[in-house]
Design brief:
It is globular and about 45 Å long. The termini are close together. Strand 1 and strand 2 form a beta hairpin. It contains six helices and two strands, in the order H-H-H-H-E-E-H-H. The chain is mainly alpha-helical. It has a single domain, classed as dinb family like domain (Four Helix Bundle (Hemerythrin (Met), subunit A), Up-down Bundle), CATH 1.20.120. The mean pLDDT is 95.
């Protein structure tokens, strides 16, 4: 599998995992920290996409989204990532991306590294959500990559 195909596959997984977590949050009637973390995941994913597109940041890094706003963001992001990643090839993944972080510091990173950061950052926070939900007596979403593959959500 080529790296661009692998990255696209990871973003299919990411979308599935985000939706699974949103479903678990909704089923538990849980808000609070799990919803705050989910809002952050979605906002950060959009922020990194905007950085790679060279456009200004449109959302706060830690927004206060409702469940419905999270669901709408997830829907929109799935399409935006698909459009952004569909033409990507090996050469494009090594292109440097210059961006300013939330502290105003300027960095340059390879596009491939940014994309892998987006995936791992989201997985990290989904793990925090699972721990929060479990600690509150709720069943968190099972979002392991291999589970998504076994279930046919990721090919």
């Amino acid at each position: 599998m080529t790296m661009p195909a692998h990255i696209r596959r990871l973003f299919v997984y990411d979308d599935w995992a985000n939706r699974e977590v949103l479903g678990a949050i909704r089923a538990a009637g849980s808000a609070g920290r799990p919803l705050k973390l989910m809002s952050h995941i979605l906002s950060a994913e959009r922020l990194w996409l905007e950085r790679m597109q060279g456009v200004g940041q449109t959302l706060a890094v830690w927004p206060d989204f409702s469940w419905q706003q999270c669901a709408a963001q997830a829907d929109e992001l799935a399409q935006l990532w698909k459009e952004f990643l569909s033409p990507a090839n090996e050469a494009e993944l090594s292109v440097p991306v210059r961006y300013k972080n939330s502290k105003g510091e300027i960095f340059t990173s390879q596009k491939e590294d940014v994309l892998l950061h987006v995936i791992t950052h989201s997985a990290y926070h989904r793990g925090q959500i699972a721990a929060e939900m479990r600690g509150a007596g709720f069943s968190p979403a099972y979002t392991d990559f291999i589970h998504a593959v076994r279930q046919g959500f990721v090919e």
